[in-house]
Write a structure and sequence with these properties.
Elements: H1 2-23, H2 31-58
Transmembrane segments: 32-56
Keywords: Membrane, Transmembrane, Transmembrane helix
Length: 59
């Protein structure tokens, strides 16, 4: 009986820790910031692509 109680306690503690890990992300950014980073990245890639194409056409 004692062993069963100890196992249940440990299982309960592990489940509680798991829930805390799932519901508290360590490094989460708000959605608008993710969108802004993606937008700026794509914009920079487009500018670089246009620059490379215009450079190749000028040569």
């Amino acid at each position: 009986m004692e062993l069963e109680k100890e196992i249940k306690e440990r299982l309960h503690n592990i489940e509680r820790r798991l829930e805390q890990m799932q519901f508290e992300p360590v490094n989460s950014r708000p959605g608008w910031l993710n969108f802004l980073l993606a937008f700026v990245t794509v914009f920079i890639l487009i500018v670089i692509s246009v620059g490379v194409v215009s450079f190749l056409q000028g040569s």
